[in-house]
């Protein structure tokens, strides 16, 4: 629903279709008849936010409850923001067109650190005070947040009233139930928040006091008012009975992932040591092929999408992948629906799987060896062998593929310049493999794209204590790869090191960074995840002004016994296990994945998932 | 196989989507509706639909059309209409389905209603400005194309028009060339007006009907 005032702006901005709502399957309710209004905010553009699965799940789940109306809010692109400011139009929700300040709950999903500035900017555009303190005691405009960045909420602790730790499906509704009750009883916001803190999976940052040592590290982290000392994550134990939407909003304009998305499992068995998702979503919990098949079919029927993507952290690790693909192929052909299988591992690309996807669609091949040398891959526990990768590429080339994309990281712990050069060499080996594959596509040339991003140490990984390489070192490594590439068949891309640096600061930041965030908001920072807007120098000025050294967060090695800003949060994986993994990394030792052997990470305490599968009949 | 013309309105939120987005939205709706229409062949088959005359982003369309090829010749037109409407966003409404009587290439003219206003200025003034512009013997305007910017005279492409003064806007009803070689987009006319008067107008453009070379309604 767009107001007359907004309509006047729409023809002046790029892609106005993202500011109007009105899509198929959008949920419209009568606002006078609902008890709870929830603004689900995605701190990025419409195209990015609408592609996000978590938002689709919660939108649909909330709206299934009769007296909750959940609406969507996205960050307006800079041209629209400028017009809105000029004409005094507050940020509004797409469904009702009502300003953000009208909502009971304002919920953000924090998918990447560089969207923090957008979160604050959106609050400000919506005329909602950005800090918890200034929002007052009335039981409305409760700002909540979840998503992977909530695992270290400290850099935004002053702005968010409560965080959802872990998976949101159940805990969101419990908080809303409590809200209804508190509202009926005329409770204040602080009373409500205090009660929320007793719900498992809820973290209320204002109920904790942090003390610092003279060197800036944390001295103590104390709960106030009887709040729990440790906040445990929530997770869904039975994926088959977990809520999953049978319907998605079908956007009018093209979005990043414009297709049906079907979740097949949560978590990852692998435990790559740099990967946060590999630890915080443990243990692996699968949906059954029958559930997936039925949910896929319903989604395609209700949306009209002709493509469905099977989503997980590593699709080929789904234990019954062949059975699943067979089931899907029974109907997808007739219905003219194609299946895509992203996040394939190098060792998961078998003939059997390949033939099944090939019958539907041939898209580009993407693998992530992550490191060039075998030693480095052992350090990060990416259990992929050089021969395996070559074998897989040969299979693909024989199957008609001619382009391969390879993803790597530079700046990994213990990395030497030789390891870095091996990234280029690996690319070359893939090129050579192409020419050594006898039944490759005739008359075609091979293209290998090598992409290198910079390693960002993240909380809840074995590398959470590691320093990030400084920007000059990262630049040197990028250059070293370029110098080591000799073939024209290899195209090299790399990520901007400046961005990775800021990401590293916020990923492991503490509450002292809130001041920087607040100042960033005052200065109108936004879209830091976009090259159009991001300028590291502007951030460095802010740090300077606040007397904060960003290198303290990004480039410092932490002691194992330092209190980390996120130590009060429990994702199931123990700190002791992470330390052990870190030690093993230093010794170039790998750890087998969950299906081969349990390494006792701690996540078995949830009593479900891969930890309780029988291991002997596993492949 | 039967060529079928689907008539629809494009308004509200859908006014703000481009032709490309409309195309995708229609294909998805056709796919979801399971109406037996012909699909492209090959690796990734999709429903086949063409549009006799694309509509610019921002315009309302009250008599738009899209052509498809129906595989089941006995399939009822009424059912096509109902099924498609169930599968489309509310800003696109199918109101009629007919046989495609004329070839798409027959479209030569289109009629528009253009509402123009200037904030805080009387609509009579805008009417006079319009009359003045349209009574010129040539109306030159810069047109951006792939080859660069060139100046064109759009006067020849204006078939007939009338200007009416409404309470808070000037209403221009106009028939413009809309053929494949000769065509005038109302936005060109608006920019001609803006460069002449140096004002920035609030505009609201609706495309009404399509006509052939000899002014017959396109069917
Ligand atoms: S407890 Fe064992 S099986 Fe379970 S997630 Fe941890 S390592 Fe894997």
List its traits:
heterodimer, A: 619 residues, Transcription Regulator spoIIAA, six-stranded mixed sheet, 20 helices, B: 219 residues, alpha+beta, Alpha-Beta Plaits, two-stranded antiparallel ribbon, 4 helices, elongated
What are the SSEs and their pairings?
The complex is a heterodimer of chains A (619) and B (219).
Chain A: H1 4-10, E1 36-42, H2 46-49, H3 53-64, E2 68-74, H4 78-86, E3 105-109, H5 116-125, E4 142-146, E5 162-164, H6 169-184, H7 189-196, E6 202-203, E7 208-212, E8 218-223, E9 231-232, E10 260-263, E11 265-266, H8 277-280, E12 285-286, H9 289-303, E13 307-311, H10 321-332, E14 338-340, H11 351-358, E15 365-370, H12 374-379, H13 386-398, E16 403-410, H14 417-436, E17 447-454, H15 471-484, E18 490-494, H16 497-507, H17 513-522, H18 536-545, H19 551-554, E19 569-570, H20 575-586
Parallel strand pairs in A: 1-2, 1-3, 3-4, 4-5, 9-19, 10-13, 13-14, 15-16, 16-17, 17-18
Antiparallel strand pairs in A: 5-6, 7-8, 11-12
Helix pairs in contact in A: 5-17, 6-7, 9-10, 10-11, 13-14, 14-15
Chain B: E1 2-10, H1 19-33, E2 49-50, E3 60-70, H2 77-87, E4 92-99, E5 109-117, H3 123-134, E6 140-145, E7 148-153, E8 158-165, E9 170-177, H4 186-197, E10 202-211
Parallel strand pairs in B: 3-10
Antiparallel strand pairs in B: 1-3, 1-4, 2-3, 5-9, 5-10, 6-7, 8-9
Helix pairs in contact in B: 1-2
The complex binds iron/sulfur cluster.
Task: Describe the 3D structure.
- The complex is a heterodimer of chains A (619) and B (219).
- Chain A contains 20 helices and 19 strands.
- By secondary structure, chain A is an alpha/beta fold.
- Chain A has three domains: 4-228, Cobalamin-binding domain (Rossmann fold); 259-363 and 589-619, Transcription Regulator spoIIAA (2-Layer Sandwich), CATH 3.30.750; 364-512 and 548-565, Transcription Regulator spoIIAA (2-Layer Sandwich), CATH 3.30.750.
- In chain A, the strands form six sheets. Chain A has a six-stranded mixed beta sheet, with helices on one face. Chain A has a four-stranded parallel beta sheet with strand order 15-16-17-18.
- In chain A, strand 3, helix 5 (116-125) and strand 4 form a beta-alpha-beta unit.
- Chain B has 219 residues and is of the alpha+beta class.
- Chain B has two domains: 2-101, Alpha-Beta Plaits (2-Layer Sandwich), CATH 3.30.70; 106-211, Ribosomal protein S6/Translation elongation factor EF1B (Alpha-Beta Plaits, 2-Layer Sandwich), CATH 3.30.70.
- Chain B has four helices and ten strands.
- Chain B has helices at residues 19-33, 77-87, 123-134, 186-197, and strands at residues 2-10, 49-50, 60-70, 92-99, 109-117, 140-145, 148-153, 158-165, 170-177, 202-211.
- In chain B, the strands form two sheets. In chain B, strands 1, 2, 3, 4, 5, 8, 9 and 10 form an eight-stranded mixed beta sheet that branches.
- The chains are: A alpha/beta (619), B alpha+beta (219).
- The interface between A and B is medium-sized, with 27 and 30 residues.
- The complex binds iron/sulfur cluster.
- Iron/sulfur cluster binds next to loops of chain A.
